[in-house]
Design goal:
Length: 401
Amino acid sequence: MLRTKSLPLAVIILTLLTSLGGATLALRYPQLKATLAASWQQNAQESLANRTKKLISSFEQALQSNLLLRYPLIDLHGLYQRLMGRRSVEDSSGQMVLQDSYANLHFLYWEQDTAAPAAEYVKFYYTLREMALPLLYVQLPNKVIPGYTELPKPMTNNSNLVADAFLERLAAQQLPYLDLRPRLWQSGIPYKDMFYRTDHHWQTPTAFWAAMELVAYLEESLHWELPSLSRDLKDYRQETYTGIFLGSQGRRTGRFYTGVDDFTIIYPYTDGSYSLYADGYAEPLWTGSFRQTFLREEHLAADKPITHGRYGTFLEYDMGLVHIINHDLQEGKRVLLIKDSFSLAMAPFLAQFFQELYLIDLRAFTQLPLELLPTIAEIAPDLVMVVYNTEVFSEVMFTFE
């Protein structure tokens, strides 16, 4: 039972939330109605009980995302957690966010068995080999840095251990892979500058570093002769926007819990000429210079709220199938990346070195009227790479069908 002194505060909070919920229902009725209609239609093949259950879940999620004063309330909640000295915050969806000793935010990530994703990857490897297509797995890093990151016990992020176990399974099958994690830790980039404080993604200079590291690896291991462009960050333009980025973890805890991030864009001094096609459409989505094709700078506008998804400055969002043509290369390699969102910031720098670069995100690809293996066969790339960070060992990311 509530103590007597706590009862007035509880009543005030309950009254406030009830009032906001009612106001949201009244003012956001069209959006909520559309969400419910879409859910009801999408689950038409389900039983009535399951259909109703999913309808209620969709309504709860829609009400949370459309709640009036949602982000100011999150800000206040995060400020309270900070003043209380708490290093873990649970958001409204149940997602736990952890704060390390340097005020970087992390998702809670328990260990999981990698047998199933490894088996699917091995099957995919041999399927492509029968098609005379080489496959390379590239392990991207995350912001849990050995010897640097300290998370509040007993909660932790075990994604590095999961990735280690997965790579051990590939090694047991003698399959090739590139692990960028130890290379990054030894790169000389300051640990605090590798990743955003409020987001799980890497910062743009780190994505640039990874692209150049991958290019160098392909030249060395496959003996490819790639364009002799500069791989030095000093030879690229950098523009930093101060205090405008609040990542996915920061949006769960509020801007006052651990602060906000700067956001940097990087592009070459030479314009280049590119075209980017998306999801099989005949006309390019964007075309022109490097900056015109790969950067959606409208996301950096100062009038957009701090909660705006500014990571979408790179290639907008995770599309199912992307085809990039480098018009400056008349002859060159054709490469296909099966990717996660980390490659949004890395792919533009890779595109400078290949005549054609394809990107497939399996989460969105399943929504297209395409099949994976026939699509890869039609592309006929010189190399297929599965390029994942350490937190994506889910079924959808390892279903190569």
